[in-house]
Design a protein that fits this description.
Layout lengths: L14 E2 L3 E2 L9 H24 L4 H6 L2 H33 L8 H13 L2 H11 L4 H25 L3 H9 L4 H31 L12 H10 L2 H29 L5
Antiparallel strand pairs: 1-2
Helix pairs in contact: 1-10, 3-6, 3-8, 4-6, 5-6, 6-8, 7-8, 8-10, 9-10
Length: 267
């Protein structure tokens, strides 16, 4: 019987038909590696602030770019992103675990096909459909984002669990561990890097797509972009676009830290 303590999982640098390239193992980042992105984002915001302050703003620009207004839009944007991401995790990870169990193999292809529908429809079309069929407002946008981003996390969960070395699982079972213990203590920890890669993809998509909630009455940061187009004020559009980009990069950075913390040592 193979010794569990000396057995390692298969390399993570693989390619699958379902999920494409999978992230390879990497070492822990240095302090400079952790500080680079926050420094870049802070510098970007400072430069943006200086540029706006030096411009002579019209009354329309002052109204849209007022601090309280921008913070309100940012708060709604963050709530939509956070709630939709939590719902994606609650759906994708348990379902991904279920679909990798041997008894669920017959239902795996149709289940994946169902979740493919969400990404087959353009994001703005999906949000519009939910708004028309349900209502105008916050929750239809959240549900549309969940439908649109659940697939990356689901696929990566399945890929991460499937690529765990079978000999590791057999060794654990031979040592008397239950199936639940093997899943919680071996399979999921070894699958964390790939699951987190899917989560980071979903987060980035959610931040960008949440701007479209503006078209169905939700005051996200997309309000700035639309207002700039309506008023023909490029400054407002640029500010809105930069804020969305900074938010997406910041959330991706925080998710990368979570990935480093959760990643088992040696992977």
């Amino acid at each position: 019987m193979t010794d569990l303590s000396t057995t390692t999982a298969q390399p993570l640098a693989t390619t699958t038909a379902d999920a494409g390239p999978v992230l390879a193992p990497r070492g822990r980042r240095s302090l400079g590696g952790y500080l680079f992105m926050p420094a870049l984002l802070i510098a970007t915001l400072i430069i943006l602030y200086v540029v706006v302050q030096r411009r002579e703003l019209s009354s329309g620009e002052q109204s849209v770019l007022a601090f309280d207004n921008v913070m309100s839009n940012l708060g709604v944007h963050l709530r939509i992103t956070a709630i939709s991401t939590i719902l994606v995790l609650l759906i994708s990870i348990p379902l991904g675990i279920l679909l990798t169990r041997s008894f669920a193999r017959p239902i795996t292809p149709p289940a994946i096909a169902v979740f493919n529908v969400g990404q087959a429809v353009p994001s703005i079309g999906l949000i519009a459909l939910f708004a028309i069929a349900w209502a105008i407002g916050f929750w239809p946008v959240v549900v549309a984002l969940v439908a649109y981003t659940v697939l990356p996390v689901l696929r990566n969960t399945m890929v991460g669990l499937r690529q765990v070395d079978a000999s590791v699982i057999e060794s654990a079972r031979g040592m008397g561990m239950t199936k639940t213990a093997v899943l919680l203590r071996i399979e999921l920890p070894l699958a964390v890097p790939i699951i987190m890669a899917g989560l980071r993809t979903a987060l980035t998509i959610n931040v960008g797509t949440a701007t479209l909630g503006t078209f169905v009455g939700v005051d996200t940061l997309g309000v700035l972009i639309v207002a700039g187009q309506v008023q023909n004020k490029q400054l407002i559009t640029v500010v809105g676009g930069i804020l969305v980009a900074v938010l997406a990069l910041l959330i991706d950075y925080l998710a990368s830290i979570a990935e480093d913390v959760l990643r088992p040592r040696g992977l």
